[in-house]
Amino acid sequence: VMLKFALNCCPACTQRSSNKTLHGDGDMLYNILKLGSRPGLASAIRYKKRTRRNSGDRGDNKATSPDYTKSEDPGEGITSPAGRRVTRSELRWSGEDRRAAASRQEELKLASSTFALTGDSAHNQAMVHWSGQNSSVILMLTKLFDFNLNSVTESSLWRSTDYGATYQKLNEKVGAKTILSYLYVSPNNKRKIMLLTDPEVESSLLISSDEGATYQKYRLSFYILSLLFHPEQEDWILAYSHDQKLYSSVEFGRRWQLVHERVAPNRFYWSKMGLDKEPGLIHLETSISEGQALYVTCKLQNCTDANKGKPFPGYIDPNSLVVQDEYVFVQVSTGGRPIYYVSAKRDVFTPMKLPKYTLPKDLHVISTDENRVVAAVQEWNQNETYNLYVSETAGVFYTLALENVVSSMGPEGNVMVDLYEVAGIKGMFLANKKTDNQVKTYITYNRGRDWRLLQAPSKDLRGNNIHCVLPYCSLHLHLHVSANPYTSGNIASKDSAPGIIVTSGSIGAELTSTNVSVFITSDAGNTWRQIFDEEYAVLYLNQGGALVAIRHTPLPIRHLWLSFDEGRQWNKYSFTNSPLFVDGVLGEPGEETLIMTIFGHVSHRSEWQLVKIDFRSIFNRRCTEADYQTWHLHNQGEPCLMGVKRIYRKVKPTARCVMGKTYTVSMTSGPCDCTEADFECDYGYERRTDGKCTPAFWFHPSSMSRSCTTGMTFLNSTGYRKVVSNNCTAGVIAEYTARRQQCPIQAPKGLHLVTSEGTLTATLGTNVTFLVFLEEGDGARTSITLDFGDGHALTYSNVSSIEDGIKHVYKAVGIYRVTATGENSLGSESAVLYLHVTCQLEYIHLAAPFVAVKNKEVNLTAVLLPSQVGTVTYIWWIGNNTEPVITLEGSVACTFSREGINTVTVQVSAGNTILQDRKTIAVHEYFRSHLLAFSSNLDDYNPDVAEWRLDVSRVIKNSLIQATGVREDQLLVTILPGLPTAAEFFLLPDKQLTEGKPEKSAAHLDQLSEVLLSALNQNLVRFTLRPGVQVTVYAAHLSAAPLVDTSENHSGSAMLMLLSVVVVGLAVFVIYKFKRKIPGLNVYAQMQNEKEQEMISPARPTESTPDSQRDLVTSLEILDTELVLRCTLQKLKILPRLFVLFQVKNGLLLVKISHYT
């Protein structure tokens, strides 16, 4: 079964399928679809173009054409089209077939019986379970699946106790109205059956402990999507629910307990005895956030935070955890590039070392048996092919085995790689490789060390010579194997029949989907024979001593073919009197398989017909020792494969005898002397055209001694390593095996400094773990000093003392230069890492003036909370500009060339967080403004939020308009942030009246100001905030109120002295800034702890000079003055609630500061 990273497949177990059906090892559980059951879909079996097709089931005694693959589990008995999900053809049995049947001559017949599942004619799916060896019980669940509703609407449960000759309907035992959706079987005790009801009707389990004879119903509080049985404990089950929760049961489903929430689908695994500390341990992947997951282990009945383990330090990529045999794999993406980690025998995780410039886009773990990993890697320059890599026993160092292996998309959207491991022959694989846009089939006998093309048969099915010369012409095979354990592929082999491979393929320069024939080899791929020129499913009987062929066709059939001599001769047998549309075939569990059930139907609307075939009558007797012969495994005459000579025993082609259930494959082996062919290139080495392994251009052989310690020894590679599981001895083993040498004394070289997360960022206040690696040098005698860049440093006596990493907590945001220095008596080496320590950005506020002067600079400021979050990028969208302004500073200056309302948006990017704020600015060429105050009761209802200020501003504006008669378009009002509540109104000139002239505008604004101030001074402006709360609006007249600090920390004299210093400093700044007289300028600022921009007021109209052009102040001058004041007072930590009034008049600077307690 293919295991893959980050793709939607089922690496957890071979028991799961797309329809949630499950079975255990050795179990015979199939999901069969009746032909034609799904409207609008063609047959799932792709009928390829043929050179010749017979109508019905007629023909000579030479069978024609298959397209068949083996069972995923060689120990599961016989599989066939039964496992395929196929749709019924609308074809009918033709009149020609009827005439042929009428004139049928005497023919060979098989002992068979037929049983019809009466009342299930509408049912279009069936799940079948044969209990196992020495059991005659077969369970069959038939269902009517509505593809429009995507649910089961009817079901029936049938049980046979006589190998399928008769069946009993059990609907009354499980509940007449109960709708069953799935059938599960314990892999460790086939007598234990579990039925799952349709959750749309009720969510329940029906459990049987007597092979389905009786059932008990148990209610469920969740909806089961998939189950995973324990490989050894028959009552232990894991259940995955629709809401990503994982449940466990130790009572075969009678009681359930929640294990964990937010579990990734198909990413949970049982512990493995001998590797994990306890049998009840569960490996699972839990989702943390989008793009982040954790690898967690916990106890079956006690998965609390205290009992959880985290074998991998840090986050992993979602859907990347794979636990297979003694290996665990995870994936972590850094900088857009995936890094794959492996743990062997539950040891620490280590990055998988592929050749340096492999740069994988995708990686699949194909195999983990025989203590090594086979991985399929799609490299950066590949799109439809993968390269095969093989590892040593630790699964860390990988070398190339075969390039450009063909891949295809599976039915679940998972990637299928055209690599097939032949059952019964250790180290033998078949693969389809793409070369010059041609797909060719290659074979290896030594786990990918050497590959060669397949020699085509010398004669075709009719005995004609085939002219096919290597390498221009060869035999090419279809190697598709199904990801669903209940379906078949194109190729079959069995452990009980070593050397026999049946497959479909073609002869020529490349693999094609036309002119497909069926081929067989009896000598493990050395020679091949063509057995059919049309598509047939070929099945194994009698431990491989006989073969059964059933034609793949949408037409009804009544014959099958039998061969007793490894496919050299075939005899046609009838298995039923009436032709049958065949939907599937189920064989007796085990390797013997002498009883078979064919599932089919007579017509489109008929019920299921179950035909039981008993092959025992066609065998004469039990096999004796004289019926067997020996067979020597070889590769084109070379007997030494994987370091040994292997001799197998198999039945003679002329012996028609039953091997029996006790038969086991017998093999004798003898050791071979080691030759160069027993060794593959070591990591970092590449095989040249002359067959020699030499270092790759990027590889430094001395780097393999990086963990070496003076006084110790290390294995110095010769460029070769023995193929895993190769058992050769003597010969050239000394020449090619890595040599143990004394560790050299050398200065530290190749010092690496990284964080455990592999990132360059850290969160303020959390532990940061630094890892230090030394490629070369005496680690035991090399001291390591780590300077964290914040004034702290640590020194360790040797590298080995910091294997678990060095932890440090940063207390301030910033960019730190972290330096690691390794030093011994021969020299030193340093490594530098720049670490960005950040904290979460929670809130931003855009401080901007409410009104700005046309064509005058305006300062915009983004205020952050917290103020220090690390490296920040500001993106400004100003007015109608289509391109943003990007800065690293929180302030930007801009001008507006047109009057009107302009929108300013700032986005702040800090780490993975982006926040934004937006403000509108009214731009005018001339305006007059004045500060407003309110009766004290307004402060009691001021929540100091932007929305409240906006609403109250609108109320004040309406009150001013009602009291004075000023037009709405000539008045703007804004509430200032902070307490006490203050506001500012802005008067705009009537452009038609003033004709845009400065003198007229100033005079007009003076008149409007007098009207509004008169109304304010007479207390004519009032509004009702809420029933019983009336607020009066005043014109603010600031006086030199005594500056008193009511706190205990400051005296009044100290405060007055401090403010005097502030006033002098501000006076110098204003004089330097303006460098000219600005008559009639009044500017105020309200100091507070707010992050919002305070509003700034130009001159009061009563104090202005006749020169109106100089009266109209710029927002730049106002904002600069206010910002300097605010920064100065904040740095001096003066009390926040201050009003400061500047007045530059007749060349003098007057300052009034009022302190509001």
UniProtKB/TrEMBL annotation:
<keyword id="KW-1015">Disulfide bond</keyword>
<keyword id="KW-0628">Postsynaptic cell membrane</keyword>
<keyword id="KW-0677">Repeat</keyword>
<keyword id="KW-0967">Endosome</keyword>
<comment type="similarity">
    <text>Belongs to the VPS10-related sortilin family. SORCS subfamily.</text>
</comment>
<keyword id="KW-0812">Transmembrane</keyword>
<keyword id="KW-1003">Cell membrane</keyword>
<dbReference type="Pfam" id="PF15902">
    <property type="entry name" value="Sortilin-Vps10"/>
</dbReference>
<dbReference type="InterPro" id="IPR031778">
    <property type="entry name" value="Sortilin_N"/>
</dbReference>
<dbReference type="GO" id="GO:0043204">
    <property type="term" value="C:perikaryon"/>
</dbReference>
<feature type="transmembrane region" description="Helical">
    <location>
        <begin position="1054"/>
        <end position="1072"/>
    </location>
</feature>
<dbReference type="InterPro" id="IPR031777">
    <property type="entry name" value="Sortilin_C"/>
</dbReference>
<dbReference type="GO" id="GO:0005794">
    <property type="term" value="C:Golgi apparatus"/>
</dbReference>
<dbReference type="InterPro" id="IPR015943">
    <property type="entry name" value="WD40/YVTN_repeat-like_dom_sf"/>
</dbReference>
<keyword id="KW-0968">Cytoplasmic vesicle</keyword>
<dbReference type="GO" id="GO:0098839">
    <property type="term" value="C:postsynaptic density membrane"/>
</dbReference>
<feature type="domain" description="PKD">
    <location>
        <begin position="771"/>
        <end position="831"/>
    </location>
</feature>
<dbReference type="GO" id="GO:0006892">
    <property type="term" value="P:post-Golgi vesicle-mediated transport"/>
</dbReference>
<keyword id="KW-0732">Signal</keyword>
<keyword id="KW-0770">Synapse</keyword>
<keyword id="KW-0325">Glycoprotein</keyword>
<keyword id="KW-0771">Synaptosome</keyword>
<keyword id="KW-0472">Membrane</keyword>
<dbReference type="InterPro" id="IPR000601">
    <property type="entry name" value="PKD_dom"/>
</dbReference>
<dbReference type="GO" id="GO:0043197">
    <property type="term" value="C:dendritic spine"/>
</dbReference>
<dbReference type="GO" id="GO:0055038">
    <property type="term" value="C:recycling endosome membrane"/>
</dbReference>
<protein>
    <recommendedName>
        <fullName>VPS10 domain-containing receptor SorCS2</fullName>
    </recommendedName>
</protein>
<feature type="compositionally biased region" description="Basic and acidic residues">
    <location>
        <begin position="87"/>
        <end position="100"/>
    </location>
</feature>
<keyword id="KW-1133">Transmembrane helix</keyword>
<dbReference type="InterPro" id="IPR013783">
    <property type="entry name" value="Ig-like_fold"/>
</dbReference>
<keyword id="KW-0966">Cell projection</keyword>
<dbReference type="GO" id="GO:0031901">
    <property type="term" value="C:early endosome membrane"/>
</dbReference>
<dbReference type="InterPro" id="IPR035986">
    <property type="entry name" value="PKD_dom_sf"/>
</dbReference>
<dbReference type="Pfam" id="PF00801">
    <property type="entry name" value="PKD"/>
</dbReference>
<dbReference type="InterPro" id="IPR006581">
    <property type="entry name" value="VPS10"/>
</dbReference>
<dbReference type="InterPro" id="IPR050310">
    <property type="entry name" value="VPS10-sortilin"/>
</dbReference>
<feature type="region of interest" description="Disordered">
    <location>
        <begin position="44"/>
        <end position="100"/>
    </location>
</feature>
<dbReference type="Pfam" id="PF15901">
    <property type="entry name" value="Sortilin_C"/>
</dbReference>
